[in-house]
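Late entry, evening session. Most of the bench is empty. Finally got around to the prediction I had been postponing all week. Sequence below, unchanged from the version circulated by S.P.
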Amino acid sequence: MSAPKTSLSTASPPPSSPHRLPSDPSLIRPNGAANKVPPHTEALTIKVTDSLDGAVPGILHLPSSYDHNSTPTGGKDGKTPPPPQRTAAILLSGAGGGLVGPSSIYLGMATKLASLRQGIPTLRLDYRYPARNKYCVADVLAAMSHLENKYTISRFVLVGWSFGGAPVFTVGGSDRRVVGCATVASQTADTEGIRTLPPTPVLLLHGLKDRTLHYSCSRSLYERYGAGRGERELKLFEGDDHALTGHAVEAEERLCRFVMKCAGVKEADGERELVEGKLVDGKDRVRLMEKGGDLDGPENVE
């Protein structure tokens, strides 16, 4: 394998047909979820308006406290209190698109976050045209608008893997609805938005043996964020790869707790087991990445 890069973005023109959402029940919820599965999980196609238009696919995990058939109301009649500020997480994959994230971490995360007593809606979002930041940013903004219009969600935590760091920091650095950004093995190309991200908190995870995007990418992002401007954390995993296959459970827990903190959600009694639990078997993690499209294009586990 060649030396690690700092970017998986492409400058090539978008293909004639946008990315398609794989149809496979195993990509909807983890087999180990048992009773922890949120009551409503649905495949979405969200309309995007830009130079190419179209729709971006995704899978939404919605807590039981949300009415998935209508927009929450309140406050307009002057008698009922307005709904509280709501936070959602949007999880973005790498340069090949996809739905389950590095080592299928997103599959477990989405289930856990939506299953909390103070459940956090979580959208696993694909891209129309992976590895092309301009269009991927439009996908994220369209998803945010969809969740805001349908569920009165006004705050978002963005999580990205590999190339996914580009849309995460581009949107996070310019849209004040974003209250937290986290990445796993991010690239540095198209991430200048991290300079204007503070004081919004950031979490950066990377494997020291990453042979796809060198861990120096996350070190660089940590420095660009700057000291004393906000809450920043860099965690480097000894001996681990691009997908954090050796520390997937720990990475998933760290990401869940980061999202919860940004959303102002505290762990309730009995929820520690859920947050720290393993919902995806180790032997299934890479297989699900392949089925979900997360290893398409230039992406790699190593």
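Two things to note before I forget:
The mean pLDDT is 90.
The longest helix spans residues 133-151.
Will write this up properly tomorrow.
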